[in-house]
């Protein structure tokens, strides 16, 4: 299948594909069935240096851009795996690289690059605030050389497979700030220490094998030096991470999209009903062709978002649009794939139902489709604010 990205970053693609080939679909299927964590896979990615792609070379990483990082994530999903187990490391890293102090970078980045520490978690979402992030209720109050955290988070992923988390908390009450996006700060939390000192974790069983949790903070004390960047500016910093996250997830959806199209095309050529391959029927061909066109188009927006991000230019619009288009395209491809597998699409051994569940998540997280539409309507088209 000749695609838009054919030949782009081929060296990275070949190397990641070779690594992924050591973890065939059966591996990911078994992990999914056991609701386990692909420890060996993430370890192999870490040892090969892929999880440190965005860490600058002076801190032991490979100093690549978001474009290359997105290719790594895409290839994992394209191989039949699920980057959801490890993509946090990529976008969280950038928050530390771009906004952390030199001391924080020296202290954490080399260890993360060496695989001694994992920074897989980011705590933003809360049960009452939902998408209305500036209304979060988790607070951080400065007491001497500590910050004291109280509150609750929900849907915080990979806590059980991470050493560190980036946490968003309110440091100035909402009624005392000029703009609602001010007065929020981000912190680096040592998850092992936190679980001994006031943070409790309740896993959430969910539709995908995505390790995610409720977190409760009861007077959790963290050292003052764990504040990232300037106090009160955390919302701005978290947006950098969120843009990177959207672009990476767009790339994962592109990988999923190609996986579904490959899978269903192969099946439609081989499955014979009414004396001919099902793929000979245009009723079968057209939805597959349509989703291929949509994946290809989404891929162009993904590369544009990557280009802008790597150039340090504003990329909020392109990151959101890439995520929207790619999640939609992969979902269309998933539907065509499951539909034309007939009953077999529902059998775990075909991997279609697993990938179908996995790609469905991206209509909702990390930002739901409606919120992207709202962003485009208000911030790009200048339509009246809705909320
Ligand atoms: C498996 C999983 C993993 C996750 N991992 C993380 C994580 O690691 N860290 C983290 O911080 N969060 C994480 N999340 C949270 C995720 O980012 C949120 O679920 C998502 O942003 C949607 O927020 P919400 O669930 O609060 O929905 P709500 O904000 O309650 O919205 C519910 C629905 O209403 C719609 N809606 C709300 N307001 C409007 C409006 N004004 N106009 C139109 N439609 C509207 C939304 O589009 C959505 O479909 C995860 C979620 C899941 C399911």
Q: What structural keywords apply?
A:
12 helices, 15% strand, alpha+beta, binds flavin-adenine dinucleotide, Butyryl-CoA Dehydrogenase, subunit A, domain 3, four-stranded antiparallel β-sheet, Butyryl-Coa Dehydrogenase, subunit A, domain 1, Butyryl-CoA Dehydrogenase, subunit A, domain 2, 387 residues
Could you please describe the fold and organization of this structure?
There is one protein chain. By secondary structure, this protein is of the alpha+beta class. It folds into three domains: 10-113, Butyryl-Coa Dehydrogenase, subunit A, domain 1 (Orthogonal Bundle), CATH 1.10.540.10; 121-232, Butyryl-CoA Dehydrogenase, subunit A, domain 2 (Beta Barrel), CATH 2.40.110; 236-380, Up-down Bundle (Butyryl-CoA Dehydrogenase, subunit A, domain 3). Helices cover 49% and strands 15% of the residues. It has twelve helices and ten strands. It has helices spanning 10-21, 25-34, 39-47, 66-78, 87-99, 102-113, 191-197, 234-270, 282-310, 316-340, 352-360, 369-380; strands at residues 121-123, 139-143, 146-157, 164-170, 184-190, 199-203, 212-223, 227-228, 272-273, 276-277. The strands form three sheets. Strands 1-4-5-8 form a four-stranded mixed β-sheet. It has a four-stranded antiparallel β-sheet with strand order 2-3-7-6. Strand 6 and strand 7 form a beta hairpin. Helix 9 packs antiparallel against helix 10 (316-340). The longest helix has 37 residues, at 234-270. The chain is globular. Flavin-adenine dinucleotide (FAD) binds at residues 122-125, 130-131, 155-157, 206, 210, 212, 361, 364-368, 370-371, 374, 386-387.
